[in-house]
Structures are given as C-alpha cells and as structure tokens.
Write a structure and sequence with these properties.
Order of helices and strands: EEEEEHEEEEHEEEEEEEHEEEE
CATH class of one domain: Mainly Beta
Number of strands: 20
Radius of gyration: 44 Å
Largest sheet: 4 strands, antiparallel
Number of helices: 3
CATH topology of one domain: Immunoglobulin-like
Shape: elongated
Strand order of the largest sheet: 4-3-6-7
Strand content: 25-35%
Helix content: under 10%
Structural class: mainly beta
C-alpha cells in the first residue's frame, strides 16, 4: 500500500539558470551545486515512518516524457518524526535543457524500489536568484539571527507556526500577485524558536489570511477604478467577514457617490439574494436620526410567512416605539390593527352561497361619519302587543347616542313605537297587535373608553 507523503521542496540552496551558461568569479560567493529535498513520511497506521531507506531520483526534460536525462540513488535516514533530507547533485543535462523535472522514489516496504514507491507528480526545477556577494548579518527585520530556526531544527519539527513580512510592500504594474494552490486548514508559517512573532496563526483554509491585532485599523482595504474587492467560490462563501467587536460590522460597504448603491447582491433564480442568519434576522436603519427604510420594486414585494411550518403561526407585524404591536397579519390572513384604518373605499369578499364553483361576491360596505355599531333582529309581540328586546351585555357600556328603527311585518301598525329606550342592555317595543312580527334595528356611537379596563366615558356632543 503506498504511504502518504507530506513534502516540502526546498531548492533555495542552489541556483539553476536553465538554458544559460554561468560565469562565476572566485572572489564572490560560490553557487552551490546541490539541491535539497525535504519532506516527511507517514505509515498507513498514521504514525511516522522511521529508519534508513533506499531512495532514487530520476531527472527528465518534461513533465510526461518517459525518457530520463539522469538519475541518482542512495540511502536516506528518517528521523523519529518521519522527516528526511536528501542532498543531490543533478546531472549536467539539467543545465542545458529548457525544462527540468525530477521524480522521487523511496523504498517504503523495505523490499527495494518498485512502482508503488514512486511519489505521484514530477516536480519542476525553477531558476532562482543567488547573491554573488554576501556578508554576514546579525539580524533581519529586527529579529536576531539566533532566533530564526535552522534547516536542521526545521527537519526535526521544532519550527514555530509564525511568519512576519515586516512591513513589505509588493508593487507589480500589470503583473498581479497570484496565490494559487490547495490550502487545507492549517497555518502558513515562517519559523522562529521562542515566540509567537508571525502574522498568521491556525485559521480555516484560505490562500491569503489577513489579521490586524491593533485596536483600530482594517485587515483589508481595496481601492480601484472598477471592482476593488472581488470574491468568488466554487462551493463556499465568496466573501466572508467576522468580528467580535461591540457595535462593529463584519462587513461595511459605503458608496461615496450619491447616485450609486452601497451593496449589490444577486443569488440564484430560486434562492434568496440575501439570507439573514440566527433566530431573528434583523435589518436596521438607525445610523442617523430619522433614518428610513425604503423598498423599491419594479413589480411585486412578497412576504412569505412560516415557510418551514415550525413553531407558532407566522405573522407580519409592525411594532411601535413602546414595543407594542400596531399591526399584525397572520399566516391565515387575519389582520389586527391598533388604530384607525383610513381608506378610499371598503369592499367585502364572500363566497357565492348559490353554489357557483369558484365564484365570489364583492360587496361594498356601509360607512358612517361616526364610529357606529348596528344591531338588528326580528321579534314577535305578545298578547298585549308588546316585546322586550335584549342586547349584548357590552352594548350599553361601549355605545351611546342610540338610534332606533321599527318595521312591522305582514300588517300595518301605525301605533308601533319604542315604549322604553335602552336601559340595562334592553329596550321595549309596544303599540302593535298580538303575534305581530317586528323587524328592529338599533345603532350606537362608540364611547371613548380606557383600553386598560376602566369605565367608559361619554363623548362630548358633536365628536366622532
């Protein structure tokens, strides 16, 4: 079974100017003739592979050409952590070819080099600059030389997970910086021995991670004539922002041109363009006094309630400054309004009781200058030509300034009249014949009353 290889290739200790001859002055630094290959080996059980192993390195002039241009072999010692270092001198043909690649094999099972010992994918040599004049330095970027990790310590796993670019500025006109590759969840490190000096610690997978530990300032700023910051992802988040600050924002977008928008968001055709997380997604506009929220649409504005059908019934509510519900519309279409409803006209939709399938009647409502309630009914007069009509027990407390209407049914009743007005939630009819049916109607203007439950107060004359 092939073993898993985690390999770091280091060829900083050599200079290869492929296709060009080198002229070296002896008084200057000597270009080394070796390359160094470092990595680590892990056994199928998950532990490090140790001991002494045979290795073979084959050199080629392309990534896929099967004809090799040289080879080297020998023994390599693996440390207790599975790390290894191989120093090898490439064949002369590597210097004269336009491309140079190498293939590494390590005897994993101790039975000699075979096809299962070849690591996948050849590695290409790259030309790198080399200092022909060199002097010793006591420090680099303010860090003493002894604080940096040596190659030996790095091979033994003593490196600390830190890296500091020390205020470098990268300038590339028409040549953008491209960071490309696979980045599992781990740290990008530049090792120091003794302290956490780097900019990057263990964070989720990303080709570029920026962190500003200062109490103020930004982690990333973008300035451009067109798009300043563009995020794209095949399966995850295009742009992700996170903050632990109080009264701060994970993302802030400001358009300095009053004719442009702050944020443009577009999702798929059948999914949300903006999705708010948490048990209560909230949109606010409270940055300035008197700030407002406006919804603009070329067609419809939709509110979908209780899509997952969990918990209580879904409602659409308008909340007042004292956190009381001023308007509540539930998922069944019931509307509760605290206050006056002002409209040009009122229509009532009701099903057609004649049995016409799918048809409805649209009826106009009766309006009044005053806030009135109307009660009606039919009553039969007793042997004295009288009847007492009982009203709901709330009527007398909530309404006043009553109006009456009586209509005899089946025979005239010129003496029909209200014998007693409403008192104790009932009134009396008289003046008709025994057994006569009378249609009656009573209306009352609404009293001003305390919703907390105190007794109603009479309205002043002429008020609505």
């Amino acid at each position: 079974m092939p073993l898993w290889l985690k390999m770091t290739i280091a060829i900083a200790s050599c200079t290869w100017l492929l296709g060009f001859p080198l002229s070296i002055h002896q008084a200057h630094g000597t270009i080394p003739d070796e390359i160094t290959i470092q990595g680590s080996l892990t056994s199928p059980s998950g532990g490090p592979l140790t001991g002494t192993r045979d290795y073979r390195i084959r050199f080629f002039d392309s990534e896929t050409n099967p004809t090799e241009i040289g080879s080297a072999n020998g023994l390599v010692n693996l440390s207790s952590t599975g790390r290894f270092t191989i120093n090898v001198v490439p064949p002369p043909a590597v210097l004269t070819t336009n491309e140079a690649w190498y293939e590494l094999s390590v005897d994993l099972a101790g039975d000699g080099i075979d096809p299962t010992d070849i690591f996948p994918n050849r590695v290409r040599f790259r030309s790198v600059p080399f200092a022909l004049r060199s002097v010793d330095a006591n420090s680099l970027g303010g860090i003493e030389a002894q604080d940096y990790t040596t190659d030996t310590e790095l091979a033994e796993g003593l490196a600390m997970p830190n890296h500091d670019h020390l205020g470098q500025t990268w300038i590339g006109d028409d040549n953008p910086l491209i960071i490309q590759g696979r980045f599992p969840d781990q740290s990008i490190v530049f090792p120091l021995k003794s302290e956490e000096k780097g900019l990057i610690t263990a964070l989720p997978s990303a080709p570029l991670i920026l962190r500003n530990d200062a109490p103020t300032g930004n982690a990333l700023l973008g300035f451009a004539t067109d798009t300043a910051i563009h995020g794209s992802s095949r399966s995850g988040d295009g742009v992700y922002g996170e903050t632990n600050g109080v009264n701060s924002f994970a993302g802030r977008f400001i358009n300095m041109n009053n004719s442009g928008s702050g944020v443009y968001v577009k999702g798929g055709d059948n999914v949300a363009d903006i999705e708010l997380g948490g048990p209560r997604g909230t949109v606010t506009a409270i940055d300035e006094a008197g700030s407002q929220i406006a919804l603009l649409s070329n067609a419809n504005v939709f509110f979908f309630l209780n899509l997952d059908s969990t918990g209580n019934d879904g409602t659409f509510q308008v909340i007042g400054p004292t956190l009381n519900s001023l308007l509540l519309l539930d998922q069944n279409g019931n509307l509760d309004l605290q206050g006056n409803l002002v409209m040009k006209g009122v229509k009532t939709r009701m099903g057609d009781s004649r049995g016409a399938k799918g048809e409805e009647l649209l009826l106009s409502s009766v309006n009044s200058v005053e806030e009135k309630t109307v009660l009606d009914g039919v009553v039969e007069l007793d042997g004295n030509g009288e009847a007492s009509v009982d009203l709901p027990d709330y009527f007398g407390a909530m309404f006043e300034d009553y109006r009456y209407n009586l209509t005899p049914i089946g025979a005239p009743a010129p003496m029909l009249h209200i014998a007693e007005t409403i008192e104790g939630n009932h009134f009396k009819i008289a003046g008709g014949s025994s057994g006569l049916e009378v249609s009656w109607m009573v209306s009352g203007a609404r009293r001003e009353y305390d919703v907390a439950g105190s007794s109603p107060e009479s309205k002043s004359a002429g008020s609505n």
